[in-house]
């Protein structure tokens, strides 16, 4: 029954990190962003059932002290995505030679993207009660705040009312896309960090493969293509398409970045090349990530590293 005790502890810690957001301070926001990590750690290090206990306990605690809707939001948005990724990470099966084949890290990245997109839409459904007009209004408020922060309202460089309204509409439409991009990065980073923490404590049941070797399956590219088509629709289906498009484009960008790390291992000047790459990503405000995404898509679709690299065989995969 150790998983129950650890799950209760992790759920209360995660709930506390979530509840501090009511303080509305930068420190509170930072602590709020760390809320999924306790659930990931206990799920990976003890038992995935610990994550379910943490989701239940944390959700009940927040429902009692804040509101039932906040408790439901904690379970759906914070705890269950973390539990699900940890559950997948611990999937394994014995191979023909008796060794264990663990769930590939490339598929975990794909699931991080899918989980991020579904969570963004679930959050919208919960907060608006399924009312798309309210969902769109929330997106407009976020985009208006962004446009006002980027462009002045007075002076020679100010935008006219029509142009400002067009920008607000564009960013409102892109809100699920951009939100899913950020959440995909957060989930992937948290899963990696939690696995390394648990691995350092020698409680991780599986070996953690080198991240630069990750390759998402070809089906991820098909999901991205379908999401781009779905994004053309109105309502929540279109919002889901936008979220999936943003999430999988970011996942492929991370794969492209991992591929560059992989291809430069053992090369002279590697540190300089990687440093320059990250500086360019920062300077271009992420525009370079589009090129990395295209490289990641080609890597999955055509097996670039298997064809031209030093690893002729793809990593073992498990069906989902």
TrEMBL record:
It comes from the Bacteria. The chain crosses the membrane at residues 51-69, 75-96, 108-126, 170-193, 214-233, 239-260, 272-298. Keywords: Membrane, Transmembrane, Transmembrane helix. Pfam families: DUF2232 (PF09991). This is DUF2232 domain-containing protein. It comes from Microvirga arsenatis.
């Amino acid at each position: 029954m150790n998983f129950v005790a650890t799950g209760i502890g992790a759920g209360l810690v995660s709930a506390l990190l979530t509840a501090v957001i009511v303080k509305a301070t930068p420190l509170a926001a930072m602590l709020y962003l760390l809320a999924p990590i306790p659930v990931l750690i206990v799920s990976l290090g003890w038992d995935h059932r610990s994550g379910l206990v943490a989701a239940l306990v944390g959700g009940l605690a927040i429902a009692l002290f804040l509101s039932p809707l906040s408790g439901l939001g904690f379970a759906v948005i914070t705890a269950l995505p973390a539990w699900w990724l940890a559950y997948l990470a611990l999937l394994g099966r014995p191979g023909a030679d008796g060794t264990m084949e663990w769930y590939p890290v490339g598929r975990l990245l794909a699931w991080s993207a899918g989980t991020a997109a579904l969570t963004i839409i679930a959050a919208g459904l919960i907060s608006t009660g399924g009312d798309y007009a309210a969902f769109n209004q929330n997106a407009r408020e976020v985009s208006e705040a962004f446009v006002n922060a980027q462009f002045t309202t007075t002076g020679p460089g100010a935008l006219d009312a029509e142009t400002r309204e067009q920008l607000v509409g564009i960013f409102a439409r892109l809100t699920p896309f951009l939100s899913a991009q950020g959440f995909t990065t957060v989930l992937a980073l948290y899963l990696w960090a939690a696995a390394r923490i648990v691995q350092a404590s020698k409680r991780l049941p599986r070996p953690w493969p080198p991240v630069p070797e990750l390759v998402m399956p070809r089906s991820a590219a098909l999901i991205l293509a379908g999401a781009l088509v779905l994004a053309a629709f109105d309502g929540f289906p279109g919002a889901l398409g936008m979220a999936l498009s943003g999430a999988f484009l970011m996942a492929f960008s991370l794969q492209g970045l991992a591929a560059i790390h992989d291809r430069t291992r053992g090369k002279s000047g590697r540190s300089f090349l990687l440093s320059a790459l990250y500086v360019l990503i920062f300077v271009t405000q992420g525009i370079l990530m589009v090129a990395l995404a295209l490289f990641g898509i080609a890597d999955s679709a055509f097996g670039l590293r298997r064809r031209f690299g030093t690893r002729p065989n793809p990593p073992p995969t498990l069906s989902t």
